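step 3/5: co-fold with sodium ion
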Amino acid sequence: MKKTILDLNRMAAAGERITYLTAYDYLTAKYQERAGVEMILVGDSMGMVTQGYETTFPVTMDDMISASRAVRRGAPGTFVVGDMPYMSYQVSDEQAVENAGRFVKEAGCDAVKLEGCTPSIVQRVRAIAEAGILVSGHIGLTPQFAGQLGGYKAQGRTAENALKLLDQAQALEKAGAAMILVEGVPAIVGKAITERAGIPILGIGAGSYTHGQLLIYADMVGMYDNFTPKFVRKYADVGAELLRGFTEYCKDVKEGRFPDDREHSYKISGDEAAKLD
Ligand code: KIV
Ligand code: NA
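step 4/5: write tokens
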């Protein structure tokens, strides 16, 4: 049965921790759904993870729609959140609703996510929710605001800033957000936000008290090695396995051990083969 917002609300209310990972393609999504992952974020982190950019800024709506479609095909029963890329919602409510609609209409996403909590972002959340689309807020370390934050820095590390995050969570909830992602804050700040919330709070690097836990999949399976944040635990070493497989393939081809003509080649009858002589 396909996961809905009602399932997420029920899990959050029951204290059943929600599992959440990013994915950007069909195969990864398929393995995640098989493993029991309940939510998938098609994150604009795909800019770094699958496109090799240094930031999320260059990612386009078309990139996100294409990736979201692939993820949906791989994980038809999972709650899929489409991440609104830079400048796909900042300009106006109309732009935000139109692009949020594309995630639902063209890619079959269950919800969209947008970053920040400035007055205009709160307005965007309200506009998208009023269009009937589930919206996830995203506060704390918000990469699309990296310029203003002075880089990818943990947030909520002063009482003043932590209180501001609490206010932001409440403002987003009031505006109609269906859930909020909290990124890069101390555990007690994640706890305070979660305790005050009436909607599911998902955390990434926000401690153990949030209703759900998100990680960038390529970090936790040891594929993305340019940089690993403090909050990541490595559950597999897929990068090392890929390197081993690719290296052995190169060696076998160079040294004539692959392919093996009995094992990896198509058959032709002796009669037909004789005609080739
Ligand atoms: O794009 C993404 O993957 C995200 C998470 C890192 C929070 O927004
Ligand atoms: Na993102």
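step 5/5: annotate
The radius of gyration is 22 Å.
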